[in-house]
């Protein structure tokens, strides 16, 4: 019998997910504010290289005492944004979950000595369903969400990514969903220079060889304007999981734009 061809290894991504349901409403002041980011997300499926069997997403909107994986078969949506037009609370994204993948995530993390709980009832938050309505609009690719670990220690999240790296050879796309700039008081012209300095550091960092890259990410607070750009790094830590899962694969900034007066970007590894 001829052996089946090896499963091509999938890349990992760190993507920006915008502001609330921004891609599905008329944004006040500038209706085209999010057009370039939306175009990047719509084009992402074609750049992956193959259709994944499932997607594992780490979003900047879920923290638990221990890493926790969404194990529901049909996860609902969690409308965890406030003050937006009524129709944005009626968005639908009926992507199936994957209890099988959730068990595999728990097993891999457990083998690495990293505790992982499961939650079969939590919905997909807007850091997941908003971008993925653009990436896989037919909602026909199973999606499993993994929480971050409270404390947001970059070492913990890099380690989790390394433990999950085998999924890339099993047809699972690993995506960190956040924002490279996330200071809710800082979306103003005065913060553009700080956002650019940090983003340039981030672009240079993801391109480093693995040991230097992981060391730099562990010490991200030493980056230019780090605390201005990420006062609470919940939207940066998903990058750590994607970078950890990259192992020795090179990273590269694959998207950059200016939105609401600041610079934001996305990266790919592999």
UniProtKB/TrEMBL annotation:
Its cofactor is Zn(2+). CDD domains: 45_DOPA_Dioxygenase. The keyword Amino-acid biosynthesis does not apply. Keywords: Dioxygenase, Metal-binding, Oxidoreductase, Zinc. It comes from the Bacteria. Residues 12-252 form the Extradiol ring-cleavage dioxygenase class III enzyme subunit B domain. Pfam families: LigB (PF02900). GO terms for molecular function: ferrous iron binding; oxidoreductase activity, acting on single donors with incorporation of molecular oxygen, incorporation of two atoms of oxygen; zinc ion binding. Belongs to the DODA-type extradiol aromatic ring-opening dioxygenase family. This is LigB family dioxygenase. It comes from Pigmentiphaga humi.
């Amino acid at each position: 019998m001829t052996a089946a061809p090896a499963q091509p290894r999938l890349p990992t991504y760190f993507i920006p997910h915008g502001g609330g349901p921004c891609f599905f409403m008329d944004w006040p002041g500038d209706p085209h504010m999010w057009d370039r980011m939306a175009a990047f997300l719509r084009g992402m499926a074609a750049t992956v290289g193959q259709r994944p069997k499932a997607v594992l997403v780490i979003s900047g909107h879920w923290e638990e005492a221990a890493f926790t994986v969404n194990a529901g078969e049909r996860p609902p949506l969690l409308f965890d944004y406030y003050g937006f037009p009524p129709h944005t609370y009626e968005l639908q994204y009926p992507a199936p979950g994957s209890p099988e993948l959730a068990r595999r995530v728990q097993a891999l993390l457990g083998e690495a000595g990293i505790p992982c709980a499961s939650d079969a009832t939590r919905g997909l938050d807007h850091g997941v369903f908003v971008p993925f309505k653009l990436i896989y609009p037919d909602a026909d690719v199973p999606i499993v969400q993994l929480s971050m670990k409270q404390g947001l220690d970059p070492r913990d999240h890099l380690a989790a990514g390394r433990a999950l790296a085998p999924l890339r050879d099993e047809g699972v796309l690993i995506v960190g969903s956040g924002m490279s700039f996330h200071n809710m008081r800082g979306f103003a012209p005065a913060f553009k220079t700080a956002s650019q300095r940090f983003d340039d550091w981030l672009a240079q960092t993801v391109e480093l060889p693995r040991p230097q890259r992981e060391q730099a990410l562990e010490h991200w607070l030493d980056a230019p304007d780090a605390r201005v750009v990420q006062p609470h790094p919940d939207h940066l830590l998903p990058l750590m999981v994607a970078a950890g899962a990259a192992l020795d694969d090179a990273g590269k900034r694959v998207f950059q734009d200016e939105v609401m007066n600041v610079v934001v970007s996305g990266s790919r590894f592999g």
